[in-house]
Design a protein that fits this description.
The chain is an alpha/beta fold. The protein contains 11 helices and 11 strands. α5 packs across α6.
């Protein structure tokens, strides 16, 4: 089926570099002779019929902007079969032949259901700071989030050293420790706690006490929000270190990691994958996520991208501990 008009949306959590991807999609699609409709606020924009015609000039100057000009939102109607049927009907009425979706696993789950139930063609572009999608070494926004978190921890390190404190720093990552792993390693954290490995409370307490006995007065412990022992507030209670001599403080970086200007890496990745998403559609490919693995463009079925586990080298956690001590 020939493509004449596509829709592009950003959905789920925002990530720096999404605008670069939108820019690439719009300009590549226009180069192919397609019309482009920007769908505002993700899937919710379909139900609201909030469509914006886009031309090349529509995306001028957005490559360096954080967030997403198309906005994002959660859409409860997509959880119901009746809602998905309505969405597919609206897309047909609007003459949208295919979708490019920039987002994470929830976004791609919706696309997969639309395809299975109603034949809606789509290609996904991985945009999430968690870097938890199988089929791409990196996702759009991850590099920027790492840089932001490391910068924040560098600042905390200064005050930790000045006041001889132990800082428990929580970063995002509910189901994946990829972000915490990279941030902790890059920031020289003394401990990195991730969902992929068991957390040894007694071992951490012992490590802090041993470090203090050897003259190390301050420490940074990076904690993924999805760690099984809970967030940093819970972890502080479980460590139960006496104050004095230990002054334990907590810092939750939260959504600051998702904002700000995208790094050069995320601008590059956003444009690269945005372009490749349109190339895939032009070739008749649908129901896949575009990614880059070992420098090569890959096309991964949505089901695999969502359900297959993406892992990192757990042994490097031990390496990070050796280098931090």
């Amino acid at each position: 089926m020939e493509i004449k008009r596509i829709g592009v949306m950003t959905s789920g959590g925002d990530a720096p570099g999404m605008n670069a991807a939108v820019r690439a999609v719009v300009r590549t699609a226009r180069n192919f002779g397609w019309e482009v409709m920007g769908i505002m606020r993700g899937y919710q924009g379909i139900f609201d019929r909030d469509f914006t015609p886009m031309i090349s000039r529509s995306v001028s100057g957005i490559i360096s902007r954080g967030g997403t000009i198309l906005k994002s939102d959660r859409c409860m109607q997509m959880y119901e079969s009746e809602g998905r049927a309505e969405a597919a009907c609206i897309l047909r009425e609007e003459g949208i032949d295919a979708l490019v979706l920039i987002g994470g696993d929830g976004t791609f789950t919706g696309a997969m259901m639309l395809a299975d139930e109603h034949g809606v063609r789509s290609v996904g572009v991985p945009g999430t700071i968690d870097n938890d999608l199988y089929g791409s070494d990196y996702t759009i926004g991850f590099n920027s989030a790492v840089n932001t978190a490391v910068s924040c921890i560098d600042n905390l390190r200064d005050t930790s050293d000045a006041l001889d404190r132990v800082f428990l720093v929580e970063v995002m990552g509910r189901g994946s420790g990829y972000l915490a792993w990279m941030v902790g390693f890059a920031a020289g954290a003394e401990e990195i706690l991730v969902p992929e490995t068991p957390t040894d409370i007694e071992g951490i307490r012992r490590h802090i006490e041993e470090a203090r006995s050897k003259g190390k007065q301050s420490m940074i412990i990076v904690v993924a929000e999805g760690d099984e022992e809970g967030n940093v507030l819970e972890l502080k209670k479980k460590l139960n270190l006496p104050d004095p001599p230990y002054e334990v403080r907590t810092a939750i970086l939260g959504h600051v990691q998702r904002g700000g200007r995208p790094s050069a890496m995320d601008r590059f990745l956003g444009q690269h994958l945005g372009y490749e998403s349109c190339v895939a559609l032009q070739k008749g490919v649908t129901g896949v996520m575009v990614g880059v693995v070992a420098g090569q463009v890959t096309l991964t079925p949505f089901k695999d991208a969502i359900e297959k586990a993406k892992t990192f080298d757990i042994s490097l956690l031990d390496t990070a501990m050796i280098l931090a001590r």
